[in-house]
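Bench log. Compound arrived from synthesis this morning; before running ITC I wanted a structural hypothesis for how tetrahydrodeoxyuridine sits in the protein. Inputs:
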Amino acid sequence: MTDPLHAAALTARENAHAPYSKFRVGAALEDTSGRVHTGCNVENATYGLTLCAERVAVFKAISEGAREFRRIAIAADTDALTPPCGACRQILWEFCGDIEIMMVNLHGKSEVLRLKELFPRAFDASFL
Ligand code: THU
């Protein structure tokens, strides 16, 4: 059976606003109370103002008062599973720490790893 978080990321992807890249991404972030915060990529004609699905999910969650997270699922239509971009890794580290990352595609392929594997030796508030 599909993990509900996997399914939530696929459903979130359906709302992607990606008229420029046509690359649609969904994310589903589970907090420690079990609540799921979803996001999709939202592009902009200036390109640079585009927000990735992962950051939309994180900022939605933070703005709703969630502060501790267990895992995030990221869904895209790629054979090689899509990992979070560098900017999203920094934001995920800041708000979620060494979270579990589940990458999924539309054909049921999935892989789980931890953020630390993707983002070792991060800069964060501990340096300030
Ligand atoms: N994108 C995401 O939303 N998440 C990722 O993990 C990779 C990239 C978006 C940003 C942009 O809208 C499109 O995918 C192409 O880069």
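What the model suggests: The chain has a mean pLDDT of 97. The pocket of tetrahydrodeoxyuridine is lined by residues 18, 21, 23, 25, 41, 43, 50, 52-54, 74, 82, 84-85, 88 (CB under 6 Å).
ITC booked for Thursday regardless.
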